[in-house]
Structures are given as C-alpha cells and as structure tokens.
C-alpha cells in the first residue's frame, strides 16, 4: 500500500488538459451506464457549520475504485483553516485490497470540481465565451476560472461576493493571472454582460434569479451539494432552454432541483454524462440559455484518484 500526502499529490496533479480528459471520461462512462455509483452518505454537523460526505463509484473494467471522505467546515477560514479537507482510499477492483491512501486534504476534490465546471462549459457554453461572472470569492472561485481557461478564451471576470473585501482580494489575485476583473455590489450587475456564470457559494438561499440571466448565457451552479444548500431560484430553472445535472437523483436531493419541492419538473432534465457520451447538442443558437447543476459525483473521485496514482507512479 502506498501513502501519499498533499504536497506530493499537488506536485503531480494539476488543473490541466490531461486531468480534464480523465474526469470527462468518467462522466462519459456514467452516461453509458458503465458505472456503479451508490448514493452519497452525508452527515451534517450543524453546531460547527460543517458537513461530511462520503462518495464512491466503480467504473466497470477500471483497475481501481476510490472511496472519498470529504469534510466541509465553512467557518474554518475565520480560524485560519481551509473549509475543505479529506482523503481518498483507493482499492483494487480485482482483490479489494487497499492500493493507496491519498491524504490530499481536499485537493483532488478541488481539482475535479473545477474540471467538472470546465467540462460543463465545454459542452454547453458558447464557443466564443470570453467573460465569466463568478458569484463567490473562495478558492473554488479561483479554480473554476483556471479550469474554464482550458476550454474557453476567458479574458474578463466579474465578481460578486457577500463580503466586498473578499471580492476585492479575489480580484487582486485574478488580475495577477492576466485577467481583467471587475468587482460588483450586486449579483445582477455582475451577471449583466456574462457569457458564463459560475456560482461557488455555500448559500442556503437562492442568489441567482431569471432576471439576472443575459441572453445566451451558460450557468454552472457548483455550491448546492447538500439538502440545506441552494443557489438558484426556481425561475432560473424554468427560464433555461436546457437544464443539465450530473445526476438527477442527486440534484433532486442535494442540488438545485430541490427548488421544485418534489413536483415533476416542467422541463426536460438532462444528465451531463449522457450529453457527453451521446454527443448531444443542447445549445441550438447563441441565444440559448443553459444551466448545469453539479453536485459532485463518486465517479469524478474515482476518475481523479486513478489519474493521480498514474501521475504519482510516473514521478
């Protein structure tokens, strides 16, 4: 059994095209029905504003599968600690023996989450998209833009966050990466000229509404991944010309389909894996509005863990 810590993992695995291809292949396998993926085990730790998720999946024919334990404690930044942590245990799919433990402290989740956003944009956003509105100013807000630049020529970022100082600090960081960045005091102003909108918050109330959506925009909602969280108003889902999620079941329990309160969706629900595997073209024109709700799947974790072990073995 191999034991790897975050520094070694971060030195081997980056937000790059190879990692993107590995995660996209996992989504495609899910879309083809080649993945065994149980429901998320999730536990809230309310007194500490925390939660713990356990995710896993097996891609049929793959050499390994991963089980990930992922705590998120959202008051940690006030203590000088990261919000996300965790580890991945990687098992042989032939013997069930432990091949490796990746003490990544949430790093691989950070990477695969960012790459999932880029994959959604690759298949749903306008090809000439250059301007992204980011709602939220945490580390995932930075990584989402980094990953988007793998698939679109992003040159301008509009940012809104609940705390203006956090948005200003984010803007300073992103300007250092060669981007034009504008800080806004309202969600509507941030989204007004966007080609792509990315929501990256732990919000428990909707922050984005249909009136905030410009013509032809693509929305990737990243933050709602538990029953308590929600970023999109119901009007966003209804306004979309195409609504996509990573899995319908997770979107209904943890993601943005919760907005319907158990009612049957008055629109077709697509799953990202099938969009990829079947080459579905959901953007019919530059005016089409697309929305993708990503709650995070076990297949992403198995895909990025297998990729990480390949990279680590090569070093």
UniProtKB/TrEMBL annotation:
Identify the stretch annotated as signal peptide in this record. none
For this protein, the parts annotated as crossing the membrane are none
Q: Which domain of life is it from?
A: Bacteria
Could you give one GO CC term from the UniProt record?
Answer: cytoplasm
What is the name attached to this protein's record? Cyclodeaminase
Task: Write down the species.
Answer: Halomonas heilongjiangensis
């Amino acid at each position: 059994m191999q034991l790897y810590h975050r520094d070694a993992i971060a030195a081997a695995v980056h937000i790059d095209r190879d990692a993107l291809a590995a995660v996209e292949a996992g989504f495609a396998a899910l879309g083809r029905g080649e993945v065994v993926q149980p429901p998320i085990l999730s536990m809230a730790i309310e007194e500490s504003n925390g939660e713990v998720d356990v995710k896993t999946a097996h891609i049929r024919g793959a050499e390994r599968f991963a089980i990930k334990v992922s705590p998120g404690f959202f008051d940690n930044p006030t203590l000088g600690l990261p919000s996300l942590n965790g580890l991945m245990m990687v098992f042989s799919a032939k013997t069930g023996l432990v091949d490796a433990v990746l003490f990544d402290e949430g790093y691989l989740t950070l990477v695969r989450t960012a790459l999932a956003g880029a994959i959604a944009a690759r298949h749903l956003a306008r090809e000439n998209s250059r301007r992204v509105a980011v709602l939220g100013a945490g580390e995932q807000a930075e990584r989402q833009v980094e990953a988007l630049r793998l698939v679109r020529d992003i040159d301008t970022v509009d940012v809104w966050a609940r705390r203006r100082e956090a948005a200003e600090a984010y803007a300073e960081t992103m300007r250092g990466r060669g981007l034009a960045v504008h800080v806004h005091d309202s969600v509507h102003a941030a989204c007004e000229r966007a080609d792509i909108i990315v929501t990256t918050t732990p919000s428990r109330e909707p922050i984005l509404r249909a009136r905030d959506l410009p013509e032809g925009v693509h929305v990737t909602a990243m933050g709602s991944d538990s029953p308590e969280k929600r970023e999109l108003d119901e009007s966003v889902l209804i306004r979309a010309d195409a609504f996509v999620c990573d899995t319908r079941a997770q979107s209904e329990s943890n993601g943005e389909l919760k907005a319907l309160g158990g009612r049957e969706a008055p629109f077709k629900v697509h799953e990202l894996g099938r969009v990829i595997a079947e080459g579905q073209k959901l953007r019919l024109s530059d005016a089409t509005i697309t929305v993708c709700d990503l709650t995070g799947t076990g297949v992403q974790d198995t895909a990025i863990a297998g990729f990480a072990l390949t990279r680590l073995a090569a070093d």
